[in-house]
Fold this sequence. Notes:
The protein has helices at residues 75-84, 102-112, 131-142, 163-176, 187-199, 206-210, 214-231, 243-254, 265-269, 280-284, 295-307, 322-325, 345-354, 361-375; strands spanning 2-6, 9-11, 16-18, 20-24, 27-32, 42-45, 50-53, 55-60, 65-66, 69-70, 87-94, 119-125, 148-152, 179-183, 235-240, 259-263, 393-403, 422-432, 435-439, 442-443.
Amino acid sequence: MSTLIRGGTVVNHDLSQRADVLIDGGRIVAVGEKLEAPAGAEIVDAGGCYVMPGGIDPHTHMELMFMGKVSADDFEWGTKAGLSGGTTMIVDFCIPAPGESMLAAYQAWRHKAEKACADYSFHMAVTQWSPQIHDEMETVVKTYGINTFKHFMAYKGALMVNDDELYNSFRRCAQLGALPLVHAENGDVVARMQADLLARGVTGPEGHSYSRPPEVEGEAANRAIMIADMAGCPLYIVHVSCEQTHDAIRRAKQAGQRVFGEPLVQYLVLDDSEYQNKDWDYAAGRVMSPPFRNKKHQDSLWAGLQSGTLSVVATDHCSFTIEQKRNGVGDFTKIPNGTGGLEDRLPVLWNAGVNTGRLTKEEFVAATSTNIARILNMYPKKGAVRVGSDADLVIWDPKATKTITAKKQVSRIEYNVFEGYTCTGVPRTVFSRGRIAWHEGDMRAKPGDGEFVRREPNAPVNVANAIWKGLTQPKPVARPDIVP
Ligand code: DUC
Ligand code: ZN
Ligand code: ZN
Ligand code: ZN
């Protein structure tokens, strides 16, 4: 069955135009003025609205066992939360348990994701180094269609990798045409600061932010960037929260390195005063890593989005209930790290970015959808309102208003870090591969509607430091043309 979205303004990252959008078989088959409706087509009115590519959140953790707790939103509720806020695809992290193979982790994640209501893809985490992992990475890329590997430079004694492991894995990524991702925080320093704070009697949630200052992040970001340069691979830094990391990215870009930065929407509007709240549950609900920063850092992140030194806005959606957070009463290091935000990312970024004049609506589309589709090698299947692309679309009403409250959210937790924040500009109708998945509060998507999106490796690019040029050229990997 075909659908005609009529009367809206199509917004892509490069252009906005008055145009109708015709959908058939889950894809966009025409974009143009005054399109004729085929016989039997469903007509959807988009008068006064924008028609944008559905949001892609490249950083989520559904049903993740982390710090002894399993995050509350699973693939069903997480993707439903996303759809209700205009996000039509998530990229989640497969994280092997200690001793578990990447292949077993991949299968476990595929199983968890069977109930996804919207499309999804995965990154794979490298949490140690061994000949087995070296070999498994090739299977992950070539057989499982995952072209990104995540590395934690923090969480000492759990997920953290050292420089030797980072360098080995980055070299392997270069050979495979894969993109390494880093959680940039110096885990050794964090562990020591945590111990010092606890010894001084600082046990509440404010200790979390004191133990992870911006310098801890900036140091790790600089180190990862230099290691990527030596290994000859591009680099993607997740959850960029501060000026120090932004500055490292800016300098690396200037020097010709392909380095991408991902601020979170939470960092753009919330600051570190949240951890001083006297209500323990309130403050603990905001505990995530890296923590929220002050205004100076927020301004730097906005500047990065405006200038293009930062590319993508994500959420790191990893939702823990109050009960789970209370595990850390008396010891902030035991508060499970993570917050929600998936359903609020687009409305909050629109309100704080587009309505204030900080971002154009085209830049908004780039930051929420197109840039990440390109970085992760799934453009233009995803990330564009364009003939041949998947019909993952959001009809956006720029005049409609919503006040965010946990009472009305889709996410399964009892609080919302944006509680009371009023957004002007919200989704009206959300399409997932051509089907109406959500319309004005009516959730129509069903568990199992989401599909896994394979992502092929990138052609190796010549990003190597001079020491590698001509010495060990990565084996070429063909980049299949995904343009239909
Ligand atoms: N940070 C969080 O806050 N939660 C999940 C993992 C992470 O790095
Ligand atoms: Zn299964
Ligand atoms: Zn992280
Ligand atoms: Zn994360």
